[in-house]
Request: fold
Amino acid sequence: MVQKIKFGTDGWRGMIAEDYTFANLRRTAQGFAEYMIAQGRGQEWIVLGHDKRFHSENFAAAAAEVLAANGLHVYLTNGPTPTPVISYAVVAKHAAGAVNITASHNPPTDNGFKVRDEHGGAIDPDGLKEIEARIPDDESAVKRVSLAEAKADGRVVVFDAAPDYIAHLKDLIDLEPIRAAGLNVLVDPMWGNGAGWFPRLLDGGATRVTEIHNIRNPVFPEMKRPEPIPPNVDVGLAKTTELGADVLLILDGDADRVGAGDENGTFLHQLQMYGLMAFYLLEVRGQRGPIVKTISTTKMLNKLGKIYDVPVHETGVGFKFIAPKMIETDAMIGGEESGGYAFRGNVPERDGILAGLYFLDMMVKLGKKPSELLQMLFDKVGAHYYDRIDSRFSGDRAAREQIIRNANPATLGGLKVTGLNTLDGYQFLLEDGGWLLIRFSGTEPLLRVYTETTHGDKVQAVLQDGLKVAGI
Reply:
């Protein structure tokens, strides 16, 4: 029986040994190679990297063998490498794209196959569909050459992507004021590829950087998954107060997303972080330009857009929508609810390392602790409250969507429903300018229910009503 491989928002993810097997990975690599050939780029270079999950380096080697056998040339990273570093390597090496063996923030049972275009950003939805369509039904159609042979004849070159990325950072941010500030920074790289990066970048000054969860451990102890949201961040938040740190920076497993905790060990959620990132660029750095946001992230951005007279563009969920829109509009910043933010001057792709450095720079430039920065933002746009509930579902997705479409609620959590946005999922607009969104994950059998409102006491009531609308 043919096992169909389905691409989600970034590529393909699956459960190791169940559907994420070497045979299926090679089939997927063959589909990507045929896509590149069809694009007229069959003799060009592809950057290929991996994370610290189980067998990732071996899955990467298998993908390299397939790409090389199809005539492509491969820059293979010399070890686990953050996704933003891999993405920048595409630009630095003038490559045609990238493949990244990572499941990002998924549970430890999973691995993945992320793909990137010549800009280092996500491939657009049409491109993803074409790659998926070109994946052969079985391994008999897969071309392979041994990795040793491909290395020997120069079709695969092992390299270190870090130096080019670090040199590039110096064009985006001056690290000396952060090094000299004397901050006490705690970093949780969540057992992933971001380990060692902040100590490396900020070494040599008065600022101290301490890391936790910074070795390779593919079962990710002390968290359900390497995703910078509660309860995965709880150990780091407790350690923040224990050490008296000024800030906690949290990277997901492949370091393209960032979260933070304030000096009191309170989590700054993803919508607050996006608001702060945009506020930093507008207010501290004086930048101007479009903001690109997904439907699932904060309306604080719309308010900042009005205050600073910059346009705000809304897209579906995923960087496959954000990256093309950023390129089209020369956006200042683009981001999503999951904690991924991209910046003009960098590749149109999430970069948790750069976002973390920008957050530290904001602290230094304004001389404020994280809780004070959040209050500054709220002073500009008003307080906003957010939460989300993820629920696994079984049965027919189409039938559940019909339940949602038929619900037609007049109120949610006591707030009047004023409209419905179906750009990506089902977003019920609320009378206070807030919203409730119900949508299905693109990578897992999960139904996500999110809300943002200006009424802190109504968040849980809105979410519970949202679950009822979804038939849960």
